[in-house]
Specification:
The complex is a heterodimer of chains A (about 750) and B (about 260). Chain A has about 750 residues and is an alpha+beta fold. Chain A has 28 helices and nine strands. Chain B is of the alpha+beta class and about 260 residues long. The chains are: A alpha+beta (about 750), B alpha+beta (about 260).
Chain lengths: ~750, ~260
């Protein structure tokens, strides 16, 4: 360690030059970064839900749907129907749209019974020009389940154009083209754009825009917080340079490693600020506290490093290992984030230990002007003393609070409810609500029912069973509509005048009715209902709810009903965006539990090793565990969902917790020889104060995110600020309580030999 | 030396003669020849068509077609299409009676219904039987509406292994068509269409027709392509048709083209 001190204090200019050079190199790396705003490929290939999704995709394509809605007082006017026609043509020009599969009132065939025979033209081939023709059109629509309530609402106030996208669509391009259509056609009628691909883009763009706006303010406020703490320019500037450089190095490394910026790694700067800024704060806090005790700058910086260098190194390593615990997730972006987070924390540690001393050597001054924040100092000290004097009451309080938090934590909802992400007046939310209100809904679950026999879907038993299944699906209150070849056959049966009861349909009638549909449909349209060999049927289930738990319940109910109905090897497979989200939810829960357990184990293992004591390792862990329980309880009470972004935040708690615990404990063990009360007092005004500065500046900064209209950004702000507060409060309370217990108080082994610690670490 | 000079002279003279003979033919003459090559009184053949989606999914059907020139107009026909496979749709049939002055009459017969239903007349741009071929394309193949287009001969080109006249067909101002232009390649030997590119109303290349395996029909002076593909370049769907057992102008029973007949299938 001494050699390292000599390097940084003896050659500060060289250190800064090397730092600048490396920063330039890593800056180039940031130019290689690419953004990937999609969850595709998030799930492992061998995941059973993913395998099922891919099975459906292989036969029926992915067919993610975009939906353009047109809302008016009455669409049954020449202007209204003309708008549907021209909008349909424009939708066909959206990139990645299957032109021949765009569905609207303007494209669907109107097979209707007439006195003279069968009408088989497009609904809007010729617009009605007499009252009788208007009546006829409305009547045709009312009788057609494939159109009524699916493509146009029963009251004629809302119609949609539904367009499936090619598998490899790029969300941004589709979204931009749909937006242009909305702007061009907005006028007498209101145009809404929706569907999962649009929703995802809308959410990501909204979050990204809001994040940029608020995170900028948050960072500014964090550093204002630093200034409030230190009242010194270098007290703000040095940690700022350290944190910004850490972010550049980390993002640059991502670029060189070919890692993309994902929805998850988007939050890396924020997490780096929250975790890495504490390294700088602890360094500057120690530096300022020692500034009046030394005669030369070199001695001061060496003493600062001697006192705080080791705890920073320990926290850096353990935070890094904690971040690696994210590797247990089966979600690619979270794994990547765990890896890059680990590198980021190591970079922050290295920069802190090399750059900060070098900067202090060159730009720092002896007797530097700084002043403690007396209010914070008093609060920290009073709180520590209060805990020390009322240990039993605090113990009772904790024992009462923890079960309550666990009970609330059980109620945490899992997965992201996309529609609720939006502010109430956001176009995306209004569009989704309109689609849900007027039509079947915007979330789509794909079902593939495999009869396992060529021509099997023409079998009347299979047809009747699927009809029953579809009816039971449509009875679910969250399901707006379900469409399959059952609707085609039923409509043709009703139209052809045969009007056979479902049970009377035989293989020939089903085959001939299907062929009648094929004679007017494009191959793509046909393949949306069944495969080439007529062995597999496709059903699209339109869901009004965007709550992932409702989606899972629907899936379970369908699977149970299918089990009851089908026999003889018929299998059912689930696909579509909704299933993808269900799988992500499952992995978030199982991954989260594993991630927390592993992170805690890593912390226990590394701190036990460093302190050469399992008991001390367990001490380090206690405030982190209690903070985690409280944060989950808070999420349960406030209804904050456990989604991808909140998963990261809870992982971060471990990182921040380690940091606070180690700094507190190193200081506490140093002073324990002076007695418990003295150790608590000295720690609370030393490391405790730095912890308070760190917590306060982050709370001030990130609270601002809670005023964002977008729930994920808002929740991010709430959770970050609340977690900081909790870890601070718990660290300062738990350790005095534990050490206050008589058995521990008299344990001489608690006293820390710093040289031994250096040896242990080496 | 004299022999060499004589050969060169002969080559030049022959070449000039051939070229002048070929360039002397006009677009209108080629189109007349094309019309003659396709004009029939009646026709019967079997055919198998495949509708191939942009993702390669295939639907296949086998049919018999019966065509008979009728007296409802200058170039109007009766068509009877009867499905022969797969078995569960066997004997499903459509009957079309073309008219010059009014909408065509169409009937559909599904064996399970046991009665033929009159169906509304199709528009020219409607897809024929779910294929990429429109009703307009079908009419044009049977009888090119020469009076509705201006034709321009732009040269000769090899199409697959056959030489063809390359002609641009532009609709006259009063012509009702879904296309802004068609580019035709007419076989120099049989005067059959070997390739055609269709441009939609926005001037975009919409469809490409390719005819292959042109063979003479036994016992007649006619030739016919036995394989045709029509690719929609905007949707990437393709229809392939394989023809067989052509019988041209050998007589088709007129009574087949009636509602009462298809109901007996």
């Amino acid at each position: 360690m001494n050699n390292f001190y000599k390097l940084t204090t003896g050659h500060p200019v060289k250190c800064i030059c090397i730092f600048l050079l490396l920063t330039i190199i890593f800056s180039f790396g940031t130019t290689k970064l690419e953004t990937k705003n999609s969850f595709d490929g998030e799930l492992p290939e061998d995941d059973f839900i993913n395998i099922d999704i891919n099975r459906v995709k292989e036969v029926f394509e992915e067919r993610s749907l975009i939906m353009i809605g047109i809302e008016s007082d009455d669409l049954f006017t020449t202007e209204g129907l003309s708008s549907i026609i021209s909008l349909t043509e424009s939708v066909k020009e959206i990139p990645y749209v299957f032109k021949d599969e765009v569905k609207s009132l303007a494209t669907v065939d109107n097979l209707s019974e007439r006195d003279w025979g069968l009408q088989s033209n497009g609904f809007l081939d010729e617009l009605p020009d007499s009252a009788l023709e208007w009546k006829q059109l409305k009547n045709d629509i009312n009788k057609n389940d494939i159109v009524n309530g699916t493509l146009i609402s029963a009251d004629g106030k809302f119609a949609t154009i539904v367009a499936p996208l090619d598998n490899d669509f790029i969300g941004g391009e589709v979204y931009a083209a749909a937006k242009r259509i909305k702007e061009n056609y907005q006028g007498k009628e209101t145009i809404h754009i929706s569907g999962a691909p649009i929703l995802v883009e809308d959410v990501q763009l909204g979050i990204s825009k809001d994040s940029k706006k608020f995170i900028g303010i948050a960072i500014f406020l964090v550093f204002i917080g630093f200034y409030i703490c230190f009242r010194s320019v270098i007290g703000v500037l040095f940690p700022l340079i350290m944190v910004v450089a850490s972010i550049i190095w980390t993002m640059g490394m991502m670029g060189y490693l070919g890692l993309n910026i994902t929805v998850v790694s988007n939050v890396l700067p924020v997490i780096m600020i929250a975790v890495a800024s504490s390294y700088g704060i602890h360094f500057m806090n120690t530096y300022f506290k020692l500034t009046k005790s030394y005669d030369s700058q070199k001695e001061l910086v060496t003493a600062t490093l001697d006192k705080i260098g080791l705890p920073i190194l320990i926290t850096g390593i353990t935070s890094s290992l904690g971040s690696l615990s994210l590797l247990v997730f089966n979600i690619h972006s979270l794994k990547e984030f765990g890896f890059i987070g680990a590198i980021g924390f190591l970079f922050a540690t290295i920069i802190c230990l090399f750059l900060m001393p070098a900067l202090c050597m060159i730009f720092g001054k002896l007797n530097a002007s700084y002043s403690d924040n007396e209010i914070l100092k008093k609060i920290t000290l009073s709180y520590s003393v209060l805990v020390l004097n009322h240990r039993k009451k605090f113990i009772i309080g904790y024992l009462a609070l923890i079960p309550v938090c666990i009970w609330f934590a059980k109620g945490i909802e899992v997965g992201d409810d996309y529609v609720k992400f939006f502010p109430k007046h956001h176009d995306g939310r209004i569009a989704a609500e309109n689609f849900n209100h007027y039509l079947g809904g915007i979330r789509v679950m794909d079902l593939m029912v495999d009869s396992k026999a060529d021509g099997g879907i023409k079998d009347s038993n299979f047809f009747n069973q699927l009809t029953t299944l579809q009816q039971s699906i449509e009875d679910d209150k969250h399901v707006g509509d379900a469409i399959s070849y059952v609707d085609l056959v039923s409509h043709v049966n009703n139209t052809m005048g045969a009007k056979l009861k479902s049970a009377e349909l035989n293989e020939e009638s089903i085959a001939q009715y299907l062929m009648l549909h094929e004679m007017s449909a494009t191959p793509g349209e046909v393949n949306n209902f069944y495969d080439e060999t007529y062995s597999k049927a496709h059903m699209q289930v339109f869901i009004k709810s965007s709550n992932p738990e409702d989606h899972e319940n629907i899936q379970l109910a369908i699977a149970a009903k299918a089990d009851q109905l089908f026999s003889g090897g018929v299998s059912i497979h689930f696909g579509g965006d909704v299933m993808h989200r269900i799988a992500l939810g499952k992995y978030i829960v199982s991954g989260k539990i594993m991630n927390i357990l592993l992170a805690l184990f890593i912390v226990l293992f590394s701190t036990s090793l460093i302190f050469r004591s399992l008991k001390k390792g367990l001490f380090t862990l206690t405030p982190i565990v209690i903070s985690l329980i409280m944060v989950f309880g808070f999420m349960g009470i406030t209804g904050i969902r456990l989604g991808i972004s909140t998963s990261l935040l809870t992982a971060m708690i471990v990182g921040i917790g380690i940091d606070f615990s180690i700094h507190y404990l190193v200081s506490f063990y140093r002073h324990i020889g002076e007695g418990l009360e003295s150790a608590v007092r000295k720690t609370s005004t030393g490391s405790g104060q730095a912890i308070a500065y760190d917590a306060m500046s982050n709370i001030i900064g990130f609270s601002v995110l809670s005023i964002s209209g977008f729930l994920p950004v808002q929740h991010f702000g709430w959770l970050l600020a609340f977690s900081m507060l909790l870890i601070f409060v718990n660290t300062l309370a738990i350790f005095p309580i534990m050490f206050g217990l008589s058995t521990m108080q008299n344990d001489e082994t608690n006293e820390l030999n710093i040289e031994q610690l250096k040896y242990n670490l080496s | 030396m004299k022999i060499k000079f004589a050969l060169i002279t002969l080559g030049v003279v022959l070449g000039t003669t051939i070229c002048s003979a070929q360039t002397s033919i006009t677009a209108d003459q080629i189109m007349d020849n094309y019309q003659s090559a396709t004009a029939i009184e009646n026709l019967h053949s079997t055919l198998a068509y495949k509708n191939i989606s942009k993702k390669g999914k295939v639907q296949e059907r086998k049919l018999e077609q019966y065509i008979l020139k009728n007296e409802n107009g200058e170039d109007t026909y009766n068509f009877l299409l009867r499905f022969v496979a797969p078995n569960d749709v066997k004997n499903t049939a459509t009957l079309t009676i073309q008219h010059d002055e009014k909408d065509d009459d169409q009937w559909l017969y599904l064996p399970v219904i046991r009665s033929a239903k009159k169906i509304s007349a199709s528009k020219k741009s409607d897809r024929f039987m779910g294929t990429e071929m429109s009703y307009e394309d079908l009419s044009n193949y049977l009888s090119e509406p020469i009076g509705d287009y201006d034709y321009e001969l732009v040269g000769q080109e090899q199409v697959l292994d056959r030489m063809a006249y390359n002609i641009i067909a532009t609709p006259k101002s009063k012509t009702k068509t879904q296309y802004s232009k068609r580019e035709l390649w007419i076989d120099t030997k049989t005067y059959l269409l070997t390739k055609c590119e269709f441009y939609n109303s926005k001037g975009k290349l919409n469809k490409r027709y390719i005819a292959k395996n042109i063979k003479p029909i036994k016992g007649t002076d006619y030739s016919r392509a036995h394989f045709v593909s029509l690719q929609n370049l905007l949707t990437n769907n393709t229809t392939e048709v394989y023809y067989d057992d052509f019988s041209i102008n050998k007589g088709v029973d007129k009574s087949m083209f009636s509602r009462s007949y298809i109901e007996t299938l």
